[in-house]
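During the reporting period the student researcher (J.K.) took over the structure-prediction task from the postdoctoral fellow and processed the backlog of single-chain submissions. One of the processed entries is reproduced below for the supervisory committee.
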Amino acid sequence: MSKRDDILLAAEAEFERHGFHAVPIDRVISTARVSPRTLYSHFPSKEALVLSVLHERHRRFIAQLEKAAFESSDPVDGIWQALEDWLSRSKSTGCLFLRAIGEFDAEPVGTRVTQHKLEVLEMLRRFTDRPESLSLLIEGATASAPIVGAAEAVKMARAYWQEQAR
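J.K. obtained the following C-alpha cells:
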C-alpha cells in the first residue's frame, strides 16, 4: 500500500470516529505514521484530504454494491446484502457523506456529497424501476445502523422494500 493510501485510510478512520473538524491534521499524520511533508505532498490542504477521503469512500461503496448486484440472481437482494456487509464492517456511525455536509455546508464538499448521492441513485437505476425508493431506504438503514445495528437496520428496510413490491 502506498503512503497516500495509508494517509487516506487513517484520515477516513479518524473522520468516521470523531468528525471532520474535530480531527487535526497532526492526528492524521500520527495515525498514518507519515511526516507532515509526506501528507502535504499528497494533500495540499485539509479540504483536499477530506475530498479525497470522500472520493475513495464513494468509489468503494459503489463498487461493493454494484459487484453484489451483478453477482446475485436478484440484484436488489445483492444490494441489500452488500449494504449490510458494508455497515457491519465499517462499524457505521451513519453516512459519512451526510456528516460531511453537516460540517462543510460550502463548496466543494457540498458538490462532492451531491455527486455521490446522485451517482448512487444512477447506479440503482440499473437494477430497479424504483431507484428513488431504494435510495431512501438505504439512507434510512444507514442512519439507523448505529442505533439498532447493521443487520436489524437492513432487515427493517429490506422488509419494507419487499412489502411495497407486493
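The committee noted the following: The chain has two domains: 1-44, 50-165.
J.K. will present the remaining backlog at the next meeting.
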